[in-house]
Every structure is written in C-alpha cells, then in structure tokens.
Amino acid sequence: MSRNRKTHATKLIQGLALALLIAAFATPAFADSGRVTVVSHSSFEKTVENLEAAVGQGGMMVMARVDQGNMLSMTGLKLKAKLFLVGNPTVGKKLFAQDPGVGLYVPLRVFVAETKDGKVVISYDTASSMLGQFDNDTIRMTAAMLDQKLGGLAKMAAR
After folding, report:
1. Pairing of strands 81-87, 30-32
2. What angle do CA 40, 42, 43 make, to 5 degrees?
3. 23, 47, 92, 104 - which has most CB atoms within 10 Å?
4. Per-residue pLDDT tens over the stretch 123-152
5. Phi first, then psi: what are they for 23, rounded to 5°?
6. In the structure, what pLDDT confidence band is assigned to residue 6 with cuts at 50, 70 and 90?
7. What is the DSSP secondary-structure string of the chain?
8. For residues 111 and 124, is the Cβ–Cβ distance under 8 A?
9. Taking a C-beta distance cutoff of 8 angstroms, is the pair 115, 100 a contact?
C-alpha cells in the first residue's frame, strides 16, 4: 500500500474511532433510529411503579397497559414486559387537528422489560422520529416537546 493510502486509511480509522467515542459519551441512553433505551437502577416492579408515577407527575396519563409478559407466558416464555400507551388528550387534540394520521403513533408507547441478563430497561421511540414524516411545523414542534417529556419520564422511572 502506498504511503498516501496508509495515511488516508489511518485518518479514516482515527475519525471513526473519535466519532464512536463521542457517540458513546454524548447520550446516557443508546438510540437506534429514534429508539431510546434507558437502563433502570430498580427492579422491574419498581420501574413500572416509578413510570406510572412519573407519567402522572409529568402532566400525562397512562391510557392503556398491555402485560406482554403475561400474554407470552401462555406460550411458555417467562418474561417480565409491559407496554404503556401514554399521552395527554390536550396535546393529542393539537396533533390530530393537524393530521389525523398521527393516530398511528399517538398515544406514545413506552415499554418496560427485564432482559435475559436481569437488567430492566425502559424503551420508547422518539415522537420526532415517528411524527417527523408529517412535514408539519406544529407537529414537529410538539414532537420535540414530547421527546423531552419522554426523556424526563424515562429518567424518573429508571431511578
């Protein structure tokens, strides 16, 4: 390999390493195309309790609960997993008035599960990643506010 190619390859590798290092320290949770996962410091049951309390304190409400672990137990799979639909009817009204298609994503989904290695995680897709497709400034601004709200809820639930 020529000296120029080695220098270019070295710079490329260093740049990639730096980008990975920055990404690792830039966010407390890990995200993948809008998905955020926060590791809880509490048990599954306490995390669920914390989430329900945080939702109420955050001006939102739990609109539905789905005990996916219980449903999957019928198949023989033992899993602690609950899905919550959370939202605020006033915020929902604002979004639905812009485009009723938001109903595919609102209320928002928050998932709490215990992993195979015993960690408890809280996962959600950011509102901005789901609602950005509507190309509407009101929806986009509301989604950004909801992103902050969900981040705060997950942080409170993970304590």
Report:
1. unpaired
2. 110
3. 47
4. 999 999 999 999 999 999 999 999 999 999
5. -65, -35
6. low
7. --HHHHHHHHHHHHHHHHHHHHHHHH-SSEEETTEEEEE-SS-HHHHHHHHHHHHHHTT-EEEEEE-HHHHHHTTT----EEEEEEE-HHHHHHHHHH-GGGGGT-SEEEEEEE-TTS-EEEEEE-HHHHHGGG--HHHHHHHHHHHHHHHHHHHHHT-
8. yes
9. no
| Per-residue pLDDT, 4 | 58
pLDDT one-digit tens code per residue, 45-95: 999 999 999 999 999 999 999 999 999 999 999 999 999 999 999 999 999
Amino acid letter, 32:
D
